[in-house]
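#help-structures
NK: newbie question, is this the right format to request a structure? protein is Outer membrane protein assembly factor BamE
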Amino acid sequence: MKAIVLAAAICSISACAVIDPLVYKINIPQGNFIEQRDVDNLRVGMTREQVRFVLGSPVVYNSFRDDDWIYVYRLKPGRGDLVEREFRVHFENDVLADVSGFYEKPADFDTPLAE
């Protein structure tokens, strides 16, 4: 009797490993999904409102430095590797001064927008 119970327990535990690849697992995106083409629209001297229009509202506001906005994106796929991206926007005197992070700085970033 003990052998039958033990065999049933082992079979039920090993069945989880067999069934797991067959179970659908959803992708879980969190944060701001930004693309390089969005970042390419940024120019030095843009106001906060203009940056918010281009990139959206940031997920994280630095509570110690009001001049930094942090755009974070995280994707936990049902299958595969975790994807994480972080992009920082820095303001000086309420205008865009610098950007850094996952995306490349645009080639014409230092050229202000025409008035």
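mod (FA): yep, format's fine, and the tokens are attached above. The beta strands are 28-31, 60-61, 68-76, 83-92, 95-101.
NK: thank you!
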